[in-house]
Design brief:
Oligomer: single chain
Distance between the termini: 40 Å
Structural class: mainly beta
Number of helices: 1
Largest sheet: 4 strands, antiparallel
Shape: globular
Strand content: 35-45%
Strand order of the largest sheet: 1-32-31-30
Number of strands: 32
Helix content: under 10%
């Protein structure tokens, strides 16, 4: 016989899953508009390969569907983009990369490094982008307007929120639509930009939205976790990390968010069903650098130490199962002659693949991959940002391309394709 506590948890899990199913049905039922006089093909579903959202997928796991190179790293090509890039690229199933520049230009780069097209949108202070099922690029600008670009042309522009310089990364949906956000507003748009649902958050957030259990989940500046069923009038506060989190949270399973919290001392897991936060691991001898990359229940996270950075693998219980040195630096000396306090430099979110290979970038602009066999490193691939942009790392983001290859975006405006020999399973 099931214990009462387990029965309650089971009911909550069933309710969460049922709500997720209801959302998908409700949103799709109210969903795509169609003009019978101007019929067109609607593409839905989740295309394989690529990176459709910041941190690769709607769960923000940092996990690639294609395997990373494990050794013999080399730069396949390097191209100047002619624009400063502040956000992660998105990549389609063919390996075509889409980037949004600081002046609102959208650039498409083919897998071989050639520029396919470039279009100016006139958007001011564009935020991160998402790639819809039909390969439409969507982002939000400082005017609270969602902008959609496809095949070198602006498809639609939709004002949906108040003017805001901070924009959480959009969330692509399997039905071809997208969830867009400012710090306080959330809206579901269909593939043509029609608003299907919207709500207002009671707390501000600038972190990427996460899809969990069919719901839209956001983490606010305070570390509070909000959940919204599209179509419902309001979002609900379901849990809290107890403090602000570093960079973003990642979904470990359909109801567990994992993030670095407590001034980078804790790796914390939040159960969205029970509303409980638990500390999975405490940083010893250093500080965690968020966000983690998740491979199932295992977290791959960098640890900043007085002598450099270490890559640490933790299982679902928080036990350390592996560690490897990623970067070595001289110990900083304080004014009293002792070791200086750790200074957290802008850092790049990592990637992980099915073999456990871990792609990373250092604060100096080097790029590497760590496996059970060791670390392979490319030298300073990206130059440091100018003084006016010191809060940005040299390597803005990493993204998968195809099996045995990934790419790196430099803030300076360079895009690199990195190849090598595939990692082998341990």
């Amino acid at each position: 016989m099931m214990a009462p506590g387990r029965q309650a948890r089971g009911r909550r899990a069933t309710a969460w899953a049922a709500a997720g199913t209801a959302i998908a049905v409700a949103v799709m039922a109210s969903g795509q508009t169609a003009n019978v006089q101007r019929p067109r093909t609607l593409i839905v579903g989740r295309p394989s390969g690529g990176a459709r959202a910041d941190r690769v997928d709607a769960a923000r796991t940092g996990r690639t569907r294609t395997e990373l190179p494990g050794s013999g790293l080399r730069t396949e090509w390097r191209i100047p983009l002619g624009a400063f890039i502040e956000h992660a690229p998105v990549v389609d199933a063919r390996g075509c990369t889409y980037l949004v520049g600081g002046r609102g230009e959208v650039i498409a780069i083919a897998r071989d490094g050639t520029e396919r097209w470039r279009v100016s949108t006139g958007a001011a202070q564009p935020g991160p982008s998402a790639l819809l099922a039909d390969d439409t690029v969507v982002f939000v600008d400082a005017a609270g307007e969602a902008v959609a670009v496809r095949d070198g042309a602006v498809r639609w522009r939709v004002p949906f929120g108040r003017s805001d310089a901070a924009h959480p990364s959009p969330l692509p949906l399997d039905d071809g639509g997208v969830v867009v956000a400012t710090t306080h507003e959330l809206a579901v748009l269909d593939a043509d930009g029609a608003v299907r649902a919207r709500t207002t958050l009671f707390e501000a957030t600038s972190l990427p939205l996460v899809a969990a259990g069919g719901r839209v989940v956001g983490v606010t500046f305070s570390g509070a976790v909000w959940s919204w069923i599209p179509g419902a009038p309001d979002a609900a506060r379901v849990a809290s990390f107890g403090s602000p989190i570093d960079s973003n949270a990642a979904l470990a399973d359909d109801h567990t968010l994992v993030a670095v919290s407590a001034d980078r001392m804790h790796l914390t897991a939040v159960d969205l069903l029970q509303g409980m936060a638990t500390t999975r691991a405490v940083a010893t001898g250093g500080l965690w650098l968020g966000p983690p990359a998740m491979r199932g229940g295992s977290a791959y996270v960098a640890l900043l130490t007085p002598t450099g950075e270490v890559g640490v693998t933790l299982d679902s219980a928080g036990n350390e199962v592996a560690r490897v040195s990623l970067a070595v630096r001289p110990i900083a000396v304080g004014t009293d002659g002792g070791a200086a306090a750790l200074a957290v430099l802008p850092h790049t979110p990592p990637l992980v693949d099915s073999t456990g290979a871990f792609a990373f970038a250092t604060a100096e602009g080097a790029i590497g991959v760590a496996t059970a066999r060791g670390v392979d490193l490319l030298g300073e691939a990206c130059s440091p940002p100018p003084a006016a942009a010191r809060g940005t790392p040299p390597v803005v983001a990493l993204a998968p391309l195809e099996a045995g290859a990934f790419e790196a975006v430099c803030y300076s405006g360079a895009l690199l394709a990195i190849g090598g020999r595939k990692a082998t399973r341990p």
